[in-house]
TrEMBL record:
Domain Endonuclease/exonuclease/phosphatase: 4-248
GO molecular function, a single term: metal ion binding
Pfam family, one: Exo_endo_phos
Active site annotation, chain numbering: 106, 147 (proton donor/acceptor), 248 (proton acceptor)
Name of the gene this protein is made from: xthA4
Record-annotated site: Important for catalytic activity: 218
Site feature location: Transition state stabilizer: 149
The entry's keywords: Hydrolase, Magnesium, Manganese, Metal-binding, Plasmid
Protein's recorded name: Probable exodeoxyribonuclease III protein
A biological-process GO annotation: DNA repair
Residues given in the record as Mg(2+) binding sites: 7, 34, 147, 149, 247-248
Cofactor(s) required, per the database record: Mg(2+); Mn(2+)
Length: 257
């Protein structure tokens, strides 16, 4: 079973790239972020024609998350992160696929910091961690996949001082991610590549892709029941190189059925 996450940065604008990648990579499950489309604008017909069922929660202009499943329909279980009924941003969705609970998440960026956007980021991560702990307690196999908007460690960013004030690398952001992993979740990409330089995002500005000036923002975490099933993980960097591509590359894991 192959599970992937991809911040598509506009699902309609980059639909051709998404469909090309689906056809070549053939993931069984895909978590998408930054749909930048309302529910009615989601390209359901094109995705179904590619062989994928889908559930999604859209939002005009920004945000939006989805879960795709090859040759089957995901069973929708949740369309928002619990803990704050006033939060209307489309950043979280859950569905059951082939006996596994899949979560697709798009965590807040948090910039500029300090300020209300950074406060929202930390509050969102706190709610997410609380929900993740509750999911672990159920004992069911769970995958938490998406754009966490956190650079976990200094080695997950190219050598630079330009991000020193950025919310993605602040001690509070990294502590939130570390607290999540410490619950018992497995950072699958790091498990398979413990010492390698790993980037999943390259900003469009300042030739960062051409210079390989990247960050690791996209993560797939596995619950305890899935640890022993993990067989591989990687980053489809070639997708980032395509003209008109997202500023993120797809990240994937493979597991024994």
């Amino acid at each position: 079973m192959k599970i992937a996450t991809f911040n598509i940065n506009g699902v309609n604008k980059r639909l051709d790239i998404l469909l090309t990648w689906l056809g070549t990579a053939e993931p069984d499950v895909v978590c998408l972020q930054e749909l930048k489309a309302t529910d009615g604008q989601f390209p359901r017909a094109a995705i179904e024609a590619a062989g994928y069922g889908a559930v999604w929660r859209g939002q005009a202009a920004w945000n939006g998350v989805a879960i795709l499943a090859r040759d089957r329909e995901p069973v929708l279980t949740r369309t928002g992160l619990p803990g704050d009924s006033s939060d209307t941003q489309s950043r979280y969705i859950e569905a059951a696929v082939n006996g596994i609970l899949i979560a697709s998440l798009y965590a807040p960026n948090g910039n500029p910091q300090p300020g209300p956007k950074f406060d929202y980021k930390l509050a969102w991560h706190l709610r997410f961690n609380q929900h993740a702990a509750a999911l672990l307690e159920t004992g069911v196999p769970v995958v938490l996949a998406g754009d966490y908007n956190v650079v976990p460690e200094p080695r997950d960013i190219y050598p630079t001082r330009s991000y020193d004030d950025n919310a993605l690398v602040q001690p509070e952001s990294r502590a939130a991610f570390r607290s999540l992993v410490d619950q018992g979740w497995l950072d699958a990409l790091r498990k398979i590549h413990p010492k390698e330089e790993l980037f999943t995002f390259w900003d469009y500005r300042r030739n960062r892709w051409q210079r390989d000036a990247g960050l690791r923002l996209d993560h797939i975490l596995l619950s305890r029941k899935l640890r022993r099933r993990l067989t591989g993980a990687g980053i489809d960097r070639e997708i980032r190189a395509l003209e008109g591509s997202s500023d993120h590359a797809p990240v994937w894991v493979s597991m024994r059925d």
